[in-house]
Amino acid sequence: MSSSFGTLFRTTTFGESHGVGVGVVIDGCPANLELTESDIQPQLDRRRPGQSDLTTPRDEADRVTILSGVESGLTLGTPIGLLVHNKDQRPGDYGEMNRVPRPSHADYTYQVKYGHSARSGGGRSSARETIGRVAAGAVAEKLLQLHWDIEIVAWVSSIGDVQTEAVDPARVQRSEVDAHITRCPDPTRAETMAETVREVKEAADSIGGVVSCVCRNVPPGWGEPVFDKLEAKFAQAMLSLPATKGFEIGSGFAGTTMLGSQHNDPFVARDGRLGTSSNHAGGILGGISSGEPILFRTAFKPVATIGKTQQTVDFEGRPVELAAKGRHDPCVVPRAVPIVETMAALVLIDAAMRQQAREFPLPSRG
Questions:
Q1: Cβ(113)–Cβ(226) under 8 Å?
Q2: Burial environment of residue 224 by CB neighbours within 10 A (0 to 12, 13 to 18, 19 or more)
Q3: Rg of the chain's alpha carbons, rounded to an integer?
Q4: What whole-number distance in Å separates Cα of residue 68 and Cα of residue 80?
Q5: What would the CATH number be for the domain defined by 4-358?
Q6: DSSP state of 292
């Protein structure tokens, strides 16, 4: 299904941007996990709109409610239903979208595919759909931390042409990331990024950037060869997010400029197992985790819906000037940080469960 992700830990999101609410159904979560709304809410709070002058002013508390699958604070092993009500809907802001597809938005392609679409705020193509992903990912992240002590930390590594210079993926913590409204843990660059976004917002325009992410303490051996390689699952997860246009892992495209002798990661003995002296591979070899930190980057384009007047055409092909209404982020990247983290958690928990299934003990033949 196009709204589902995962094999053994499977999530299905539902809802539209300006409908009654948005949410997710999680199928495959083990029983007896201690779980309440307070385990899920922190990541939703980091994702929600209206956090600062750099984000959309849409006023949503994004409070999650557990509908099913949990009793007396413990998961039952049955499907978990999570719901967040929309409180500050303004579908009237999108009236013009009934006749004019917004440039670089999904209005046109959804109309062509389905013959009808939810024009208010983009419907399922809106970033508000990611609430369900974040809620499910928060549950996955708790399992990963509890059973494998896995840490997932994402941060803003660039906005426009302003890039970080002093972030160590081995040590960066969420507290450092959240210390600035840009979610950039490099204090020498964070304020420059903020000023860049403010200038773009003042001009009724938008700007993109890059979110980097590290997954630490992932055991070696996770991931399936060939078509379900671990990096392929990460790429699918990240490129399924709204506004994403690029993904790279380890050395990424920069690795194409290196010689093999420079790019190879020689093995070393470390803590009773093999490790590598460098990590150009980004923690994955042959589609399987190596035990080194998994490091990847996701590129987000400028938000498509902007207030600046644009020359375009309506659905009938007639020329029109469009200055979109509504409340939109001038830069989605700071709010994308928890979304990237929770999608990474969904990839890893599914890989963990698939590996556990592979290790299922067979009876001895005697």
A1: no
A2: middle
A3: 21
A4: 5
A5: 3.60.150.10
A6: S
In DSSP notation, 140-204 reads HHHHHHHHH--EEEEEEEEETTEE-----TTT--HHHHTTSTT--S-HHHHHHHHHHHHHHHHTT
Task: Using the CB atoms, write b or e for 290-310: b if 16+ within 10 Å.
Answer: bbbbbbbbbbbbbbbbbbeee
E strand or H helix at 153, and its extent?
strand 151-159
Phi first, then psi, for residue 2 (nearest 5°) are: -70, -15
Residue boundaries of the structural domains of the chain: 4-358
What distances in angstroms separate CA 292 from CA 46, 211, 215, 298, one per listed residue? Answer: 27, 20, 9, 19
Q: Span 125-135, mean pLDDT?
A: 93
Contacts of 40 (CB under 8 A, 6+ apart): 64, 66, 82, 135, 138, 139
Q: Mean pLDDT throughout 138-167? A: 96
Q: Which pLDDT tens digit goes with each residue over 316-366?
A: 999 999 887 766 789 999 999 999 999 999 999 999 999 999 887 777 776
